[in-house]
Specification:
With about 100 residues, this protein is mainly alpha-helical. The protein has helices at about 1-35, 40-70, 80-95. The chain is about 85% helix and about 0% strand.
Length: about 100
């Protein structure tokens, strides 16, 4: 009986490896159909990187501005109030 279990295990492993290889092959074929040259791939990745960087900077700026705005509501609270007030004064000084 242990031999049959081993055979079934090997057959199952071969089947899953075959399916994984087939999926990988299909994905590679799709990738190379859309991108035939390395220059196109490099251009696409460069532009994608530029937009990712720009989006990260804009998102970070909006997030920090939102956080400073929310902190401005807590100026009267002890512990949070003094640092929040300093941030608010710094922002107002920079505006002038």
């Amino acid at each position: 009986m242990p031999i049959m279990k081993a055979v079934k295990k090997v057959v199952k492993k071969m089947k899953s490896d075959g399916e994984r290889d087939a999926r990988q092959s299909v994905l590679e074929d799709l990738f190379y159909d859309f991108n035939r040259s390395r220059v196109e791939i490099y251009k696409m990745n460069f532009v994608r990187g530029l937009f990712f960087g720009l989006g990260s900077v804009l998102g970070g700026t909006v997030l920090i501005a939102l956080l400073a705005w929310i902190l401005s509501f807590f100026v009267e609270l002890p512990g949070i109030g003094q640092p929040a007030e300093k941030i608010q004064q710094t922002i107002q000084t920079d505006k002038q």
